[in-house]
Amino acid sequence: MTIYQEELKRRLKEQGYGAVYDEESEMLKIYHNGVFLCDQGKNGELVYDSKIINEAHYSQFTQKIFEEASEIKECARLYENGMPMKVESVSHYRKFLEYGDTVLAGAYNKDRGFQFATWWQNDGGSYLAYGHYTDSFTKAKEDFAIRAKLVDGNKVFTQDQAELIFKSVNYARDDCEHITYEQDQEMDGIMERLVHGYPEKGFSVMNTHFEPSENITQNQ
Question: Could you tell me if 41 and 107 lie in one domain?
């Protein structure tokens, strides 16, 4: 089994999926509640059951598989092509990206999956400092972009800040008496962006189903 298949099997198992490796075909066969959904080849490609892919009932399951497989494919490609870090204590990490004095690297363990880190490094990479570690590839990339100054960190909210903004906007649109229709629609858009931009587990406020506020009508 390849890294692509090992990691997808591990992640999907945590989410209630079943996955069985077939040695003859070298395919990872993926199921949900006993229903076959798709195969994953050794290079990470997905082959869906033609009957399942067209059924709306299974779209949420196949979409989740696609999202996980896409991220794993990117991680595995970077890992397989990356050079080991020069510092001995983290030589099990392989370099993914570097810009200026900032480096992003990843390590792989069959049982734990991918782990990621960003560091400040000296010229040549023989010395590292200020390591940030995470098992989230998305967080690692964001951290790299901010530390490398590719993105202005002042323009990025933390999870707690995003939650506070969401709650504040939600309160304003529901409890302020003088909100116009246009402002209500704009607030809806802000909340939607926060929902999709900060989809962290446990961020329950982001699952709020919001409808247009009462007593607000569009200007004719």
Answer: no
Same domain, 182 and 151: no
Residue 170 included in any domain: yes
Q: What is the pLDDT of residues 153-172, one digit of tens each?
A: 777 777 788 788 888 888 88
Domain housing 186: 159-207
The pLDDT assigned to 217 comes to 39
Measured distance CA(59)–CA(53) in Å, rounded: 7
From the number of C-beta atoms within 10 Å of its C-beta (0-12, 13-18, 19+), residue 144 rates as buried
* Residue 108 lies inside a defined structural domain of this protein: yes
Q: How many domains does one find in the chain? A: 3
- pTM of structure: 0.72
Give the residue among 58, 51, 68, 50 at the shortest CA–CA distance from 8: 68
Distance CA 181, CA 187 (A): 10
Domain boundary (28, 62, 79) is at 79
Count the Cβ atoms, other than its own, within 10 Å of residue 67: 10
* Tally: H helices and E strands in the chain: 5, 8
Instruction: Classify residue 215: in a domain, yes or no.
Output: no
Give the C-alpha separation, 114 to 153, whole Å. Answer: 25
Q: What is the H or E stretch that residue 152 is in?
A: none
Token pair for 77: 């490609």
**Cα(144)–Cα(117) distance, rounded to whole angstroms?**
9
